[in-house]
## 1
Amino acid sequence: MAISIVAIALVILAAVLPGLFDGWDAVPGALALLYLGIALLLLPGNGAASALVALATGGGIVGIFAVPAPRFGREFRPRWFDLSGMAIALVGAVGLAVARPVFGMVGADIIVYVLIFSGLLYCLLGRSPRVTVGTLFLVASGNVLLTHAGPAPTQAVTLLLALGQLCVALALARLRVIESERAPRPREAAALEPPADPMLAPQTSLAEEAGEQ
Amino acid sequence: MTAPLVVAVPLLGALICALFPGARAGRVAIAALIGEVACLSFGPSTSAIILGAPFVIDRTGRLILVSACLVVLVTLATTAGEKQAVGLRPAALLALAGVALASVSVADPAMVALAVITIGAVLTWALVGHAGAGASPRTAQRYLVWITIAAGALLVSVQFTALYTAQGTTGLLEPAAALFIVGIAILIAALPLSFWLPALCDEAPVGGALAIGLLGCAAMVALSAATSASPWQPVDASSRAVLGAGGGLAAILSAFIALGEKRPARSLAFLSGASADCALAGLATGPSAEPTVWLIGAQALATALVLGCLVEAGHRGVSSERAISGGVDGLIWRRPLLGTAFVVGLLSLIGMPLTAGFVGRWEIVQSFAARPNAIPLAILLASVIAGLAALRMFGSLFEATEGPVEPTRPVDLALCLVAASLIVAGIVPGLILR
């Protein structure tokens, strides 16, 4: 039970992080928390093998999006309005999971609903970093779906799920690279030139002009 | 041994194409296609169990795989001479392997959904791989997001069905059915869930042809797997009526949009969407999805063919900054074989008789004949409006031109082969169905 609570907390934190901080810096952290939470959820019910596969997949995906450490300061502003929207989605997901449980396990229900709701929200309403996280949330929900609904998945299904997640991560990373290559470069700071507009030129008095003449 | 072979052959071809890029990769890709068809035609039919999952290929799976091979043939033929299409060949073969994996693992429907997401992710490389001629990152991202949502909907539907079967949990069948329909509708680009296709066809018509072609084949697999034993099949009559009416109306709307669309690639995308909506309306007829599967296959192949012909005629994809170049003016006189293939593909897309597209529509209309309703009329009206949209392209195709007749190229023959398959399927469908 304690492990499930920790897993839920990690997944919720993973869903909140991109909503709080917009940008690519939050993506690896969110994904790391997500897969750690999924691994903790799979550990007691499905064994160490399933948890290790989830961790390995998550490690690979986090590695694909690994970026330099986030720069604190002006560029790392929290977005409180976005967070409030995400909070509404999370509350709705948790409420739906408690009111209409599907899997019979509160942990699995909450995590699946949180991943699907937050994933859809980020996919449909966010910019590239959030769309990336949202897409991976949707795919990662398959980890819990396949292990908690119906019979245990075969090795082929487990392998294909990991492969699918890695393929999606690689595709999103490629789009990120192409997007950054095609983005307009920021203008370089240049020395200020004297304004050509005569209205902005240093004013001279009429007496001085008359004296020159 | 056939089941593992049809997955392994394109995989091996993709690996070789990726390791040895260049002109020779095109020949390797064609050889991989020929090997795939040979395995399908002459391979020994025995089942195999790999990593705990049973793999077997049946008659429907063979038909789907042949359609997928023809779609990949269109893509490879139209990009044979392009140096920047190096990344597209391994991606196309990888996606073909994904369709093969889905086709041979129908015993486990979850594999189909996972194969769909893998195919979608791999095709993203084909969409943005062309240097200066591929889709924009935003369009490719939108495509990947929608395909992920489709695969997720299919996976949730499959798992809800499995949960109901295992534990008898109530309240799962209706969401399972709805999510399944949503997933299929996104894969076949049925309006209003077709937002990923028009821009894709406009910016990267080759990638769009590959995407709609192979994802249509994957949808055929998912439908075949679901109709074999799904507890949500006997859905109440009112839900079926909504599905049928919605599909018919959406088909009419999509055909209208195609009529008003000026860019040829976008117009073809909406015509494809109209055909997809007719196929969705066919799901309301009853538990048998064979007419819908047939129509989806005809739509996928015809769309890939017309987009391939458009590319070969000179339309290389446009962005919002560049001007439109049609390239189909007088095509029937400049390159008769290419123009004929384009005409056949367009006729099949709008459901003209003697084409594969007509057979699917006819079967769906026949199944509605038992009870009077307006859905056959909606399908007929959608076909008429689509025909008006196609008439505009016919005008450009048959426009008089003073240019000389260009020599026949191998790509013209390849596209004519695909067109011939649509004609044969339309004239003697029993030859393929039995």
## 2
Amino acid sequence: MKLQIAAGVLLVAILLAVTAGCGGTASKEPESPKYPTKPIDLIVAFPPGGSSDMTARLLAERLSKEWGVPINVVNKPGGGGTVGTLDVVQADPDGYTMLTHSITCTLAAATSTQCPYKWDQMTPVSLVMANALVLTISPDLPYSSVAELLDAIKKDPSKFKAGVGSAGAPAVFGLVKLFDAAGIDPKSVEMIVFQGGAPTLAAVAGGHVQLASQNLPEAVSLINAGKLKALAVTTDTRGKSVPNVPTAKEAGFPAYDQLGWNGISGPPGLPEYVVKKWAEGIEKVTQDPSFVQKIESMDAVVIYKGPADFEKFVEQEYKTALDIAERVGIRK
Amino acid sequence: MEALSHLWHGFSVALSPINLMYCAIGSLVGTLVGVLPGLGSTATIAILLPVLSGLPPATAIIALAGIYYGAMYGGSTTAILINTPGEAASVITAADGYAMARQGRAGPALGMAAVSSFVAGTLSLFGLVLLAPPLADAALEFGPAERFALMVLGLSMVISLAGKSLLKGLLSGLAGLLVGMVGLDPMTGVPRFTLGSPTLLGGIDFISVIVGLFAIAEIFVNVQEQTRRVYEGKLKGLLPTRKDLRDCAGAMGRSTIVGFLLGLLPGVTPAVASFLGYDMEKKFARDPSRFGRGAIEGVAAAEGANNSATSGGLVPLFTLGIPTTPALAVLLGGLMIYGLQPGPLLFEQHADFVWPVIASMYVGNVMLLILNLPLVGLWAKLTQVPYPILSAGILGVCVIGTYGVRNNVFDVWMMVAFGVVGFLMKRWDVPAVPLVIALVLSEPLETSLRQALKISGGSLMIFTRPLSLAILLLALASFGVSLYSRAKEGRLAVAIEAGGEDVG
């Protein structure tokens, strides 16, 4: 009898222990789902070849090796960057459709009342790189410093036309910031829109317009060939490929600080584990010397900002742009 | 001359086994890409750039340049065989090329396209080598006013290619301008004609229009007519005859020069060059009415111009770092990733890179000729494939290619819509080529006009700048000549109807 009771107790004890063991897994906190498990689409809202596209491809190459899944860079150009961005804004927030977030995607929301998405709809993940803008003038103009140029503009703004690569380009904002700092009414210098950086710079080199503030990578070869005079770059340090060009700070106009940049963002409502995975992955890539070298060969700099910092950064960029756009009348 | 000795050295590097291999691979990939409508050399180069970045710079650029050239060749193949231009530069080739295919002369058409492309590519490379720096500087003088004048000259082609009814031709041209305006205003970013659709914000994609108007419409027409084969009967000769080559010699020479000079200019694409080269040939021809109905000189001129414009585009790219077309912009990005800054310094500091690349472009041209000529027979046999099978294949290729442009199904629907429009146009005898020309020219026409006027503060005097004025006068002359020839043809037609045997 005692043996039976003992056996029974033992049996129950074993049963309880086993149940507890099984129940143990169920009662633990659910692990984040495994991500990524299938190919990811990284959308670039511009045609192939620009800085957004190049950044995306370099990043995709590294991350796909790291994570073991293919990352397809998909170009969805159109609408000055809005078509591709909208695509991501409307995509499922499962981490398999992400956006190469270029400054132009944010600027579009500030300059166009018809922008199909709101500036804060995307989930910011990280900033990856930024490039300087460079103030260039036609080689036959007699000015050799920013101050001289601005003085001449003040005397007769109608003689100066500025070329910009698109209606809402960072170039526009850079020029406005510069003119503001110098006390020149931005509306007094006519800004003529060309289709991209290359034609803009060609127009300056040919003397058809007098100045431009384009992305440094686009202007380097013309500057070094003597076809353009460069007066300042907007970064804090001089550009490696144009070491003789002073920074805006050195030239006395620190307000001329507009940069072009690219980062990564996702659809609204992106889960935390996706954001974390990307942010950590990107941080690692940005510390890889060969990645840095490739970015620097485009004359850009690697700047990493995590999700929280990037979110603040985007907000700041948007608010500044909105203010300028409304004031100068480019918000349509 | 120093340049020649550099070139010689360049050849020795270009002909190394590794570089030859990559040149061949690039050319082959490029041809395949060109055959598929929509997937252009631009996207291909961008996609392959990271893949090739492990190779030494010269080899990688050789491969990429091979793709660029190969795509030009491939695009004309489908234009001729199945009336499906792979890209804008092949549209005009389709006009006479496909007509020749329907006459059983697909082989000579393909062959002439290859030969003309080769001749143009070779001659223009010499232009690149010998004339690059001074030409590049001169190209910078070409500003918005001059570009506008050139676009007006291009539009004058609409009159010349309008077919029997000038009114219908002009309507077609106007329709093209309208289609070109859908999307964002290129200068202010304000949406136009977008009907609230976010996809239309990106405008109507050009590939959708040409694939729809040419390929899809052609399929609809053939289905209605129950065509059994593109060409029934035996294929008459697979290569251009000696007479063909002689007839086209002038066309090849002239179009090479015109194409090269136009290709230098920022904003002038090989497509625009092909239009102007073709039109010039038509005006020089003894019997212009043959153009559009299977004139082999038309194929020679169009292909010659677009190929030499491709080389011409390399001049500002290498010497000034200014890409004149999107594909070259990507190539430029590639150069920069290698730390090679384009500019006059490129020739001096990196001679060991530049000359092998230039030499290999010549090699690429030879390679493409060798690859394509024997294949002409094979390609030409496609015109004898039973149409139900062929058209299914064409449809498949068109859908995939058109989707691939922007990864957007909307473009495919647009293609179908334009297919229907094209079908109706054929039924009503409204020519499609003016629409396409106007569409291609609409954006540069508008932007250069507005830029020029903004620069001048609204004054039209800016167009009296010497170069701009010269081109505008040329355009006026072109209008005049076209109208005169139409009138002559018209009188001849009336006389034939009226007098019968009296005309002699």
